Amino acid sequence: MFAQKGLDLARIDEITERADVGKGTFYCHFASKAQLIKELIKDVLDELATVVERRCGHIDDLEGLLDALIGAHIEFFSSRWEDFVLYFQSRSDLTLQESFPGIDTPFLDYLERLEALLASVLRHELPDPVMRRIACAVVGLVSGYYSFAAISSQEEDIDAAFASLRGAMVASLARFIQEASPPAVTGAKNKGLVQ
């Protein structure tokens, strides 16, 4: 229902009708629609982050990790369009002045898990705000790439149809991250000057 109508427009009576339960049953499990949204998003993001960590945790180079991150997201969402729409809507909802209370927490937890993966392949430790911007850029790239590919492609295998686009996006994002990293500092021969 949320994928079909959006977070705001889906009504509790429509949700309970689709689930074939009464409103009373709904309120036994959830205090509000906002709580249901938070729980749905938490479940999707927890499961997604686990899949991403399992698929990407062993990779030790930046471009390989970025490519695997995209692949893990595409694999996860390829048969779960409704979950992707919920993911996309929740990511967008974070920037709204009036958003659903509590959905930021699962999304921020998901970002932290991506930041940990990214930090594992970077040569330099980056400040937390920089890591957050990089993780947000990765999430934006993944959701934009998948949205574009899913909407534009007539193919069953979305990822294969857009392999060259994916390669270009990985290279661009790797360059962005490398440029956000501080330059290497050489030893005493350069008297502490940054290269």
Describe the main β-sheet briefly.
none
Helix content: 55-70%
How many beta strands in the DSSP annotation?
0
- Element order: H for helix, E for strand: HHHHHHHHHH
- How many discrete structural domains? 2
Low-confidence stretches: 185-195
Structural class: mainly alpha
Per CATH, the class of the largest domain reads Mainly Alpha
CATH topology of the largest domain: Tetracycline Repressor, domain 2
Strand content: under 5%
Describe the structure in your own words:
The protein has 195 residues and is mainly α. It folds into two domains: 1-30, no CATH class; 37-190, Orthogonal Bundle (Tetracycline Repressor, domain 2), CATH 1.10.357. It contains ten helices and no strands. It has helices at residues 2-5, 12-19, 23-29, 33-56, 62-77, 81-93, 104-119, 128-152, 158-161, 163-180. The chain is globular and about 60 Å long. The termini are far apart. Mean pLDDT is 80; it is low at 185-195.
